[in-house]
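Methods — Computational structure assignment.
A single polypeptide chain was analysed. Its primary sequence is given first, followed by the predicted tertiary structure written as structure tokens.
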Amino acid sequence: MNGAFNTGWARGVSLGSALMMMVLITVFPRGLTIAGGSPINHGILALIMWGLSAGFVHGTGFVPHNPMLRVALGPLIAWPLMGVGLAFYIRYFLR
């Protein structure tokens, strides 16, 4: 199932996205706020960080032996969760 995502381009997308999100969160954390300026829900932030971590795991080429961890740390989970974080930043910059 993950055969197409174990190629170089997919790993590059994961690593590049994770690096971009890491820089955004570190340098400009205010992007993770809601319209009133208060921080986002802790659960949503945890999901974004899970996606960021999974992006680094997949991007560096690590493949867990456990099938559940392989899915949880794979690109099918990482990309949408990092996309949620990116959506908060896009919404913040468009305010």
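Note: Residues 8-27 form the longest helix (20 residues).
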